[in-house]
Specification:
- By secondary structure, the protein is of the alpha/beta class.
- Helices cover 33% and strands 23% of the residues.
- It has 9 helices and 14 strands.
- The longest helix has 16 residues, at 265-280.
- It is globular and about 50 Å long.
- It holds the Pfam family PfkB.
- Residues 17-290 form the Carbohydrate kinase PfkB domain.
- GO terms for molecular function: 1-phosphofructokinase activity; ATP binding.
């Protein structure tokens, strides 16, 4: 069972438009409304793959009620933590060439009592989980070290942790020694404080994060594939994608595939790549089902293309 924790969930609205023209009235050709937030997306992808999951989410106001309703329609079990504030609403505008413009709201400010209630909910459910995926930005009111506290508590219950966050929260959380972290190329660069030009640069950055406390690093490099760096080896995975509709939630789908496949070794990396490639072919933040996957298109190798330039 994969338990997910999303401290700052969202109600995600995605509009497909012929072109994004600043200052003009745009006519959408498609629209989706989805429950959002990285951990929520991981739960949605895990459920779509036919595995057990439980999503712990702080919810408040009408947007929070709609998030809960949408998750219920998808038959995803939820452990809600009630907030006095309102769950945030995010907007994404998708163009036909795959360009995505996102507007993410900051979200509510959690009180100390709400923060502790969130940690208590994790403590209640973590003993039943194989993995606890701690995902997304921290809302106002939670210090960067909050994830480190969460990881430490989860380990105290005997469960493994996967962390997907960015900014100051990522290096702060490494003190808790998460079992795996899942940064993208930009987050890797930010964490080590320098630009990354090649896959080799990304590999070196992943090694540094492992030295700082991460057990393993699953690095999403977008069109340039994915890296898995762990104590048992280093692997590179890639799958061609001819048409990109939306990359919203693609990294979350990758993490879900990785954890559902055991969260370890080349087989789990192959599942991560297959799920990520399937997700970008779908509209909005729709999560792939087994029918959307093409495992035969995935290549996983120990021969890492160190000189391959990372896409801008």
């Amino acid at each position: 069972m994969i338990l997910t924790v999303t401290p700052n969930p969202s109600l995600d609205r995605t509009y497909e438009v012929p072109a994004l023209e600043r200052g003009e009235v745009l006519r959408a050709t498609g629209e989706r409304v989805d429950p959002g937030g990285k951990g929520v997306n991981v739960s949605r992808a895990v459920a779509a793959a036919g595995h057990r999951t439980l999503a712990i989410v702080p919810l408040g106001g009408a947007p929070g009620a709609l998030v809960a309703e949408l998750l219920a329609r998808q038959e995803i079990p939820v452990a809600p933590v009630r907030l006095g504030g309102h769950t945030r609403s995010n907007i994404a505008v998708a163009e036909p060439d795959g360009t995505l413009t996102k507007i993410n709201a900051p979200g509510p400010r959690l009180t100390p009592g709400e923060s502790e209630a969130l940690l208590a909910a994790v403590g209640t459910h973590a003993p039943d989980a194989d993995w606890v995926a701690c995902c997304g930005s921290l809302p106002q009111g939670l210090a960067p070290a909050w994830y480190a506290d969460l990881v430490t508590r989860v380990h105290g219950h005997g469960s493994r942790t996967a962390l997907d966050t960015s900014g100051p929260s990522l290096p702060a959380a490494l003190r808790g020694r998460p079992d795996v972290i899942k940064p993208n190329a930009q987050e890797l660069a930010e964490a080590v404080g320098r630009p990354l030009a090649t896959v080799g640069d990304a590999l070196k950055a992943a090694d540094e994060l492992r030295a700082a406390g991460a057990g393993a690093v699953l690095a999403s490099l977008g069109a340039d594939g994915q890296l898995l760096v762990s104590d048992t080896g280093t692997w590179y995975g890639h799958a061609p994608v001819s048409v990109v509709r939306s990359d919203v939630g693609a990294g979350d789908a990758s993490l879900a595939g990785f954890l559902a496949a055991g969260g370890r070794g080349p087989e789990a990396l192959a599942a991560a790549v297959a799920h990520g490639a399937a997700a970008v072919r779908l509209p909005g933040s729709q999560m792939p089902t087994p029918a959307d996957l093409d495992p035969s298109a995935v290549t996983v190798t120990t021969d890492v293309p160190l000189d391959r330039a990372l896409s801008a």
